[in-house]
Amino acid sequence: MNVVVRINGRGPAWPVLVESQHPFYTPFSAENLSSVSFSVIGSKRNPPKNKLWEILVDAGHNTVPYILQNGNRIPEAIVLTHAHNDHVLGVDWIVQSFHYKYRKTKKYPLYSTMGVWHDFLRLFPYLKNAIEHIELIPGRKTSVKEAGNTKITAFPVYHGKNAKGASLLFFEGDGFHPLIITGDMLCPLLRKKDYHSIGRASVMFIDANNRFPDPLSNHASFVSHILPSEEYSEKLKEWFKKTKIEHLIAPHLSRNSTDKNKTYFDEFLTDWQETKELPHTILDLNEYLKIPEVYLMHYFGYYDKINYDKELLDSNLLEKWANETAKEKHMKKVMYKVPRVGDVIHL
Questions:
Q1: Whole-structure pTM value
Q2: Element (H, E) at 326
């Protein structure tokens, strides 16, 4: 079995603000403006051709046009990290395509946590009867029957109070190295034992919306400070003072959550007591995980410009800056990369 990850999109909700320019995104390529999306593809040979199966992870702006131009094939299933518009808008198009192909005799498989599912249904209530929802339970492996022996484990993340059930996804299976896709997040809500478990991954795709801290953006930053003499920026310090760890888990314990969520967070709260203890930067998270190959996704940069007057970077400069910054932190064995849309990464 050959398994690869294809990049269907790499951008945030608004890669280029109207009446603005961004060196990372060219407005003349719809493909380059696509929201972050991945296809995990299994094949016997020559991937991603000769597909046996394809699992789509998130489907936002321009995901479906990209699929139409690259194989024009309905993925076997969709997995959602969270239910914000830029990660789910394309689901309707795919489900309707499946619905008409099978003349409404089959339901389309969608995997997510219960919090994500309920948020998704608020956006697309009319799709409820067209979808077979398979719940991802925090910290528990779920077999994806459409993808051989592939298993997914969802681990909670904090991406703001309006991102219920938002999760980091850990993929594992026969014939390929494990994989992490973080989705959008400010910080992961992992138990201590989970770091060892998912640290087996060889590749991680991570939210790199900000280079410098702005916790109110609900996205992690690459580093925790502005000046080398600082441990934390003033914005992070203020966030730590105001935000109790209970605030971070609240979106996962809404009335639509299950007792299994409570069990997970009972364990989580025995491991961590303060928000400050959790990793809020890409570098800090990878101090725990030590993933050798990390792909930076969802770059925005405007918060860096507004808060700190830091320039917006293009793809090459972001990659160069990330690796130089990591080396300054003595993390020489990690390679940070900025993928292009259409790139295929072998697992």
A1: 0.96
A2: helix 315-328
